[in-house]
Amino acid sequence: MTEFVWPVRVYWEDTDAGGVVYYANYLKFLERARSEWLRSLGFEQDAMAARDGVLFVVRRVQADYLAPARFNDLLSVSSRMLEVGRASLVMAQRVEREAVPLLEAEVRVACVGAHDFRPARIPAHIRERF
User: Fold this and answer.
1) Phi–psi pair at 54, nearest 5 degrees
2) What pTM was computed for the model?
3) Which DSSP string do the residues of 19-77 spell out, in sequence order?
4) Per-residue pLDDT for 1 more than 70?
5) Element (H, E) at 90
6) Where along the chain do its domains lie?
């Protein structure tokens, strides 16, 4: 798969008292990009839960914070598939401002049952799109 890029504007609510993006908010940016990536492939998460009985949940995040983002910055959040397993995905994600990397992360996402949150196989029609 090619890289998926999603724009994110930094709002005041994303920052600390110094106008710098609070470290945990980068996880929200990564989540939004993954959600939009799924949407771009034709998968709405609520519909996947209802139709396929599965959800994707974050299992692990490894992040390197390289430089700060600030209030009103326009950022690009990229997502690229590294690995597709039977019940999990590993994605490389990056947050940049004008091609300058601010954060690099590797995110493992698990497929779980929508009702019991136990590990589940990624349905074939979804896996084929990855």
Assistant:
1) -130, 155
2) 0.93
3) SBBPTTHHHHHHHHHHHHHHHHTT--HHHIIIII-EEEEEEEEEEEE-S--BTT-EEEE
4) no
5) strand 88-97
6) 4-129
Using CA atoms, how far residue 121 sits from 31, 106, 126, in Å, is 21, 21, 10
Task: Out of 16, 52, 64, 73, pick the active-site residue.
Answer: 16
Give the pLDDT band (50/70/90) at residue 2.
confident
The string of pLDDT tens digits covering residues 56-115 is: 999 999 999 999 999 999 999 999 999 999 999 999 999 999 999 999 999 999 999 999
**pLDDT tens digits along 111-130:** 999 999 999 999 999 999 98
Contact between residue 96 and residue 5 where contact means Cβ atoms under 8 Å apart: no
Q: Which residues contact residue 104 at a Cβ distance below 8 angstroms, ignoring those fewer than 6 apart?
A: 63, 64, 66, 92, 93, 94
CA–CA gap between residue 35 and residue 44 (Å, rounded): 8
- Two tokens, residue 22: 């609070």
| 16 among known catalytic residues | yes
CATH code of 4-129, in short, is 3.10.129.10
- The Cα 70–Cα 75 span in angstroms is 10
